[in-house]
User: Which sequence fits this backbone?
């Protein structure tokens, strides 16, 4: 039955939508083994999406859409300028810092790339920044989105692997910050090398406090979400409701940059995005059941032999596979495919499921800036009006930085698990 997994990847290479590929392979396998099992297909598809935790997905997408349209991204960028703007490569560092703040509000890379890129790429062009650098940096900084909570990728992994989403959210903070620090360090280096400096004047205490006052309502939302989950006031799913209500209040009544009329297109876009994800999860659930029914994960463990028992070697092999797959499979689809394949292996090897979830998320988000798919690259290239290959000169060092951070969190699990254990102590 391993050959059916090979068929799946052939279909993906042929650009068949992932949801259809998963469903086709599962049904084909059932037909070949026992056609009578086809009666179970609707039950397993529905069972996969009949999960209360998944309600968080459309809620966080909706909250992110409201915040993007509600002027929050502009205020976060202005606040970031106050902090790091005068430094060498200041505007580039603003991109990274704003992406960290924005990621904590939306949890999606594409939203961050579009919102931050639309404002910062033109501004960096005016300051004389190389457009190849600015567009590649916006794309790379956007990858922090699926790591820092709330994260749709981590929610999906938590649902599929039955891992605490609250623990995953806590564990994602440090890796996300490390990615931000690494990219800010590179921005500082490029700014120093090329003489990129917006101003020699550092922000005064009054200006900093003014910036905090303007952005405080946006900045405290992640604190409310994570604090509520950790303290047990509400679940990760209920935090999605809090995020939507909070975003509506801020966008409609405080910043007043959206109106009731603006909500209809926002809701429609959220519905379309959610429908795509739910369809994928339903197909993935059927695929997971098919794998389990035929003991395919056990067959993989037997094929790998002693390698599957060594956590260090196993993580290295999985990382290589995910890095390759991430170059042509989008992050959400990859989580749906590889979690059921690899989770039994890492569990047998004694690898912590929270640690593995973060490693997988960071690994696959690097694929969002890796050709040929690199969806964030296409977003920023369309904004900057340049071709993706022109970014490679500045993009490759950024990918190397992200890969180094991946290596660190892969082999120093305590770096990820320490805050989780701290909150449970």
Assistant:
């Amino acid at each position: 039955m391993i050959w059916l997994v090979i068929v799946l990847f052939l279909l993906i290479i042929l650009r068949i939508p992932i949801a259809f590929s998963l469903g086709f392979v599962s049904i084909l396998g059932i037909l070949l083994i026992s056609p009578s099992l086809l009666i179970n297909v609707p039950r397993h598809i529905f069972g996969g999406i009949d999960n209360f935790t998944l309600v968080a997905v459309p809620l966080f997408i909706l909250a992110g859409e409201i915040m993007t349209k509600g002027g929050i991204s502009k205020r976060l960028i202005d606040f970031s300028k106050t902090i790091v703007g005068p430094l060498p490569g200041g505007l580039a560092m603003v991109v990274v810092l704003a992406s960290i703040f924005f990621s904590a509000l939306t949890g999606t890379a594409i939203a961050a790339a579009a919102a931050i890129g639309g404002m910062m790429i033109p501004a960096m062009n005016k300051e004389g920044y190389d457009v190849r650098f600015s567009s590649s940096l916006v794309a790379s900084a956007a990858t922090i989105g699926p790591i820092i909570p709330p994260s749709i990728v981590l929610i999906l992994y938590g649902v599929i692997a039955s891992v605490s989403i609250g623990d995953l959210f806590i564990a994602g903070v440090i890796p996300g910050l490390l990615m931000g620090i690494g990219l800010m360090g590179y921005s500082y280096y490029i700014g120093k090398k090329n003489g990129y400096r917006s101003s020699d004047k550092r922000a005064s205490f009054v200006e900093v406090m003014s910036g905090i006052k303007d952005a405080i309502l946006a900045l405290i939302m992640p604190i409310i979400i994570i604090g509520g989950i950790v303290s047990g006031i509400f679940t990760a799913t209920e935090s999605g409701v809090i995020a939507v209500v909070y975003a509506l209040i801020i966008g409609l009544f405080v910043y007043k940059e959206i109106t009731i009329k603006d909500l209809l297109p926002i809701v429609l876009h959220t519905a379309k995005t959610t429908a795509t994800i739910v369809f994928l999860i339903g197909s993935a659930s059927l695929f997971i059941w098919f794998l389990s029914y035929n003991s395919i994960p056990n067959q993989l463990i037997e094929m790998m032999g002693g390698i599957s028992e060594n956590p260090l070697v196993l993580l290295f092999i999985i990382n290589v596979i995910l890095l390759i797959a991430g170059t042509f499979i989008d992050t959400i689809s990859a989580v749906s495919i590889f979690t059921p394949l690899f989770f039994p292996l890492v569990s047998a090897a004694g690898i912590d499921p929270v640690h593995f979830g973060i490693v997988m998320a960071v690994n696959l988000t690097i694929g969002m800036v890796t050709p040929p798919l690199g969806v964030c690259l296409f977003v920023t290239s369309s904004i900057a009006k340049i071709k993706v290959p022109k970014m490679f000169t500045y993009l490759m060092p950024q990918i190397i930085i992200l890969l180094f951070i991946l290596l660190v969190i892969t082999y120093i699990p305590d770096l990820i698990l320490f805050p989780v254990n701290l909150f449970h102590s």
